[in-house]
Amino acid sequence: MTVSILIFLPIVAALLTLLFKNEMAKHVAMFFAVVELAIALYFLSGFVPDASLQYSIDAPWIPQFGVYFKAGIDGISMVMVLLTTALVPLIILTTYEHQYKNAKAFYALILFMQAGLLTVFTAFDGFLFYVGWEAALIPIYFICALWGGENRIRINIKFFIYTFAGSLFMLIGIIYLYLQTPSKDYDLQHFYNLSLDASHQSWVFIAFFLAFAIKMPIFPFHTWQPDTYTEAPTAGTMMLSGIMLKMGIYGVIRWLIPNAPLGFLNWVNVAIILSIIGIVYASLIAFKQIDGKRLVAYSSIAHVGLIAAGIFAWNIYGLQGAMIQMVSHGINVVGMFFIWDIISRRLGTRDISKLGGIAKVAPQFSIAFLIIVLGTVALPLTNGFVGEFLLLRGVFNRGIITAAIAGTTIILGAVYMLRMYKNVMQGELNELTATFTDIKGSEKLALGIICALIIIIGVYPQPLLHLSEAAVTNLVNTVSHKFITTKF
Amino acid sequence: MNTLIIISVLPIVLLYLGLYKAQKALLPVTIVGMLVALGAAVMQWNDNAQPIYHGMMLFNNFSIAFSVVSIISTILILMLSKGYFEKISSHIAEYYAIILFSLVGIVVMVSYHNLTMLFVGIEIMSVSLYILAGIRKNDFASNESALKYFLMGAFSTGFLLFGITLIYGASGSFDLDGIRDYVLSHSHNIDPIFYTGVLLIIVGLCFKVGAAPFHFWTPDVYEGAPSLITAYMSTVVKAAGFAAFLRLFSASFSSIAAFWSPVLMVITIITLFIGNITALYQQSFKRMLAFSSISHAGYLMFAIVALGAASANAVFVYATAYSIASIIAFGALVLVRQQTGSDNVDGFNGLARKNPFLAFVLTVSMLSLAGIPLTAGFIGKFYMFSGALLQYKYIMVIVAVVNAIISIFYYFRVIIAMYFRSAERSEVLIPAYYKFVLGFSALVTIAIGVYPALISSLI
Asked: What ipTM was predicted for this assembly?
């Protein structure tokens, strides 16, 4: 079995979903998403957590261009694959209470997007990586624009153009690297082996950085994000924030820094400063938000800023922190958007100022909400803590002031998140919130899984950290070696 | 070379069919005849071609590949035209015949080995097109289109002919190899007349392929001509124009690239910006396609500016991808226009709800034109970018990227209209022929996008 089954199964599943009736679509999609998860778990069971590439496939695709279908799983990819395959069924579960128009197209697009995401996370060929990168973008564009809110057309074209622009520059970078390889192919390992001079690497760095910075997004490339997150249907927001933005982070780890280490050295200060500005800036804006979904969108920018800063610090702590925080952030943000989906579906509003006292009428909901909030604000023994602790430890290597400013994310995050929780859940019931009914059925199941994951990863993160440790160490050593050996 | 003969005889047969009022037989006979011509072309594949007819023509793989694409595209367009020409006039046989005559010119254009044949091919093609553009005799726009096209076309042919003459004057040869030998043997003392000739040929050919600043005839001509003729002009004719362009420059002028490539580079950059930015402001879908065809001419120009071993393939792949996607777009336009009576993008509002198939194939077409991965258009752009980067033309690549981003706006406007806007409309009836052509074209677009090895190493 190779990783290709993970990539192609969702495509087949998407086509099959289209054959069923709209009412059946979610069950079919769910079935395939669970099968996909089972395959990923099977891969996990046989996975040896060293730095090697496993379950790999290397088939000619367009051999005369040097394009190969080269994909595989190493420790870093394994974590991403698990994140994707676990979140997709969870996201489908959160949509069970929704009645989407033309539901089969909706679920088919989600599955198709999953194929694109998994391609990105397992590709070891530049061309394949790019194709997966775009293949994930088209479905989410349609998801957001077909089932989104009122301003969806204008906002989504902005989103599409922003991300497409970034990825075109990345394409130029990839082709440039390809032309430099002696063997004229897109193999990532051959990209790593190149030793270009620092000024050329700077250009390569910029080309890739634009694509990833827009995708994550890092300040000042974030302007598409709050609008798109707010207007998208909740499942689309979850796909975007839970999985898709990790494409950018993963890209930085796998494709940006190792491909242009000297370019990275030239630009590292700018990158870290932008990341940290993003943290503080987004946190401050999050304070002022009254739309719950928008607040979560800004908090996501802040969290991603910290992850980016941890990666740009480029040491094992920061990277390991990034790996686990990608998983944690994925779970937490999906949970958080689901909470707001439940509230807005029941009450027809996401305006925090109109809410209050829901804890009194919905105790189970309030417990789930609280656990997710605590995970998001990185309380010890929740998943958020492990990641943010390691990330800050990594950033600390860059200097105490940097770490101190980056650390404000935890304090600021706690303030706006807990304030949001207080305003929504505590205080007096009003006419609107008195009608709130507690969670049940699929909602309870989904929130139960999310809360369990938050606590399990928070208490015992070791297995997850162990998965990526060897691969991350290897990557850091390879790049550090290049810092030293390549002449300026 | 049998292809050329078959395609030349076929329209005469068709005219006789028209004479005997056998109108039902026209389309089948045309298609069968063209398939035979296609087969004849394919038979000569890898045949180790030598110049024939005293060095006038060279039917090598390059010619075969472009002939095949031209023939297939023409077949697809003719299949769309079933029931279309009947509405315009009663003399149907002539239309088929004239289109085939222009195809004769195109086959000559992609297989010439002598500048006189280039000229003859272009003229055969152009004269047929002047008639086709004005085929709706009682329509004002169609007449305007034909007249403009004729005046501009004749003007540009003059430039071309003058250029050919000057080159002959300097080198003493019309033969592509002869000119190449002249350039190589006089590398330090090429006559200035020769350079003037090259520039005039560039002007003439840029007119023909619709590259800025010699593009201004295209929007009016494309808009005024009947949609399917426009489809023919903007796909088959344009592809052939670039094939002829590339053949001349790679065979004869490649060693003086330092002279002409800055000129073409400027033309390319202007073409991209003019085509794309003007397309942004169009409300009419047809006019938008006309301007987008100008911008695609700019991308195709990349292969000539960054002339290299892969150029022929690049033009071939790009032209194929572009032609097929355009055929879908024009086919959809014809259908929607029949229902709504207008060419406007608004006419596509809400199409996805009533005609999911039509909306889907048109989406594939738009994505391909915009160059999104997993469609043929992306492979074409990919080729162009790679070729330009290989020659260190970084500025051009940046310009191309900026333009690709701009083009998203107007291509997606159609997708947005179809899927995200709603309008009261009834279902568009799609004849079986259309279903076949549109479905086939969409399938080919995706197939090339997913597995480009199908066509990417032909030439």
From this structure: 0.90
